[in-house]
Amino acid sequence: MKKMTVLSLCLCAACIALHIILEVFCAIRIGNDLKISFATLPFVVVALLCGPVEGLVTGLLGTFLSQLITYGITITTPFWIIPGALQGLTAGLIFLAFKRRTKLVPIGVTCFASGLVLVIFNWIASYFDGVVFFKYWTMEVLIGLIPVRLLVWLGLAVVYTIVCVPITKALLKSCPGGFRQRKKAQA
């Protein structure tokens, strides 16, 4: 069985902190309906370096803490923390399917697909938020935001890919033992 190393635990903690900084202080908000942010980049980095479980946990804890800081705990908090967790999980699983190759195409596909999962589940969270809080967002607004959110994600996915390729290569090169401890062969 694989266990988390101290290195991977520290990476997860640092990426949770980075997510909070990017989400709370560095996001560009356009009205109440659109936000441009690189806040989920740390979830993808953790998923690429450590795996899907660590990506899931980092996404879950990071989005929970940023939700707590920004909005407090509401009845819709679970809906808002699920997308980040699923993005981390999806990125890790897709990258494993590519046999953890740090080339442009595998990392690009990972960034695009995991981001699409994020956009879909953020849209679902927006829908439930609108239902619970008495049509905070109308269905017309939500449907109108789909192409805008997809275009924003397309641009972000390109940036994520450009950033993740050198980061992943550099960190894996500097830590040749990897971020996961392997099961020792039994004699």
Write the layout of secondary structure elements.
Elements: E1 3-4, H1 6-25, E2 28-30, E3 34-36, H2 41-49, H3 52-71, H4 77-97, H5 104-132, H6 139-174, E4 180-181
Antiparallel strand pairs: 1-4, 2-3
Q: What does the model show?
A:
With 187 residues, the chain is mostly helical. The chain is 72% helix and 5% strand. It has 6 helices and 4 strands; from the N terminus they run βαββαααααβ. The protein has helices at residues 6-25, 41-49, 52-71, 77-97, 104-132, 139-174; strands at 3-4, 28-30, 34-36, 180-181. The strands form 2 sheets. Strands 1-4 form a two-stranded antiparallel sheet. A hairpin with a 3-residue loop joins strand 2 (28-30) and strand 3. Helix 1 (6-25) runs antiparallel to helix 2, helix 1 runs parallel beside helix 3 and helix 3 packs antiparallel against helix 4 (77-97). The two termini are 16 Å apart. The model has no long low-confidence stretch (mean pLDDT 87).
Write a brief caption for the model.
This protein has six helices and four strands. By secondary structure, the chain is mainly alpha-helical.
Summarize the helix and strand pattern as letters. EHEEHHHHHE
Low-confidence stretches: none
The value of Rg in angstroms is 17 Å
**Count the strands?**
4
Question: How far from one another are the termini?
Answer: 16 Å
The total of helices stands at: 6
Beta content comes to 5-15%
Mean pLDDT equals: 87
- Helix fraction, binned, reads over 70%
Assign an overall shape: globular
